[in-house]
Amino acid sequence: MESVIKVTQLSKVFSEITAVSDLSFTVQKGDVYGFLGQNGAGKSTTIRMLLTLITPTSGSIEIFGYDLYKHRKEILRNTGAVIERPDLYKYLTAYETLQLFAKMSGVKLSKANFMDQLELVGLAQRANSKVRTFSQGMKQRLGIAVALVHDPQLIMLDEPTNGLDPQGIADMRNLILMLREKMNKTILVSSHLLSEVEQIANRMLIIDKGKKLVEGTVAELFHPDDTVVYIETNDQVRCEQLLKQSNYADKLMGVDIGGIELKLRKEDVPVLTKLLVENNISVLGITARHSLEDYFLKITTANQHVEPFKN
């Protein structure tokens, strides 16, 4: 498969602080690539190096198969980006904003082209509204319209859902999926909102303290047996006794007043439910918890070092 971004042993040191350390990863054409990590993990520093806003201390970056620093102009002409909160001119309208950035990019577009861009991000009805009247979510979407004004094949989004309410987050998620599925864009999206990235990314990288922990597809990172299922029934005591005498005995993780936890495959949930019903145990609720956030917390917690308390 064709790679769009290839990062090899990338490092960035600021004075005595190592922000990124020996980082390597590959983004394939057509990916929505989740770049994940807690705040301060090195995500923004890496993206800034990919955009030549920061010079690496060491390592190499290839984009579209070319060395970034030898072919900077050609690469950036085909790259769009939104770095954290977009820096827009508050007293321009949405339409005027696109006109300005198109001119700065050397792109000539018609009024219909600009309106199509605004329609794409759901802002066509606000084309003549001043940016200062926009919500944060609207500014984020306008920022993406600006990033798309020169029709790039690669888009980098740094924490695009920062400061958004639940509806704004959902709108951003749908917009990213549309850019990939309908416009065939390759998208690198960094975030610390892991449950959100899990819903849009087909491949992902998790970093911590500037270092790569894991990279791969969801299927590669998560083993199906790691699903945690929480069951609520009308008779917890009898349910526990039944499970201890069944093939699920070694799957039991814990029991409390509210329910029973097991670790098993999602495919086994219907079979387990049938077993309980056949034994006259009513199932009041089943919750399957198998998320990127669980996995992320597991591997990053293992990477933490807690300093002892000193009085």
UniProtKB/TrEMBL annotation:
The identity of this protein, by name, is ABC transporter ATP-binding protein
**According to the lineage, what is the superkingdom?**
Bacteria
Keyword presence, Cell cycle: no
Where would one find the signal peptide in this protein?
A: none
Molecular function terms, GO-annotated:
ATP binding; ATP hydrolysis activity
The ABC transporter domain covers: 5-234
Do you know which PANTHER family this protein is assigned to? ABC TRANSPORTER, ATP-BINDING PROTEIN
| Gene3D superfamilies with a match to the protein in the record | P-loop containing nucleotide triphosphate hydrolases
Keywords assigned by UniProt, alphabetized: ATP-binding, Nucleotide-binding, Transport
What does the sequence similarity comment in the record state about its family?
A: Belongs to the ABC transporter superfamily.
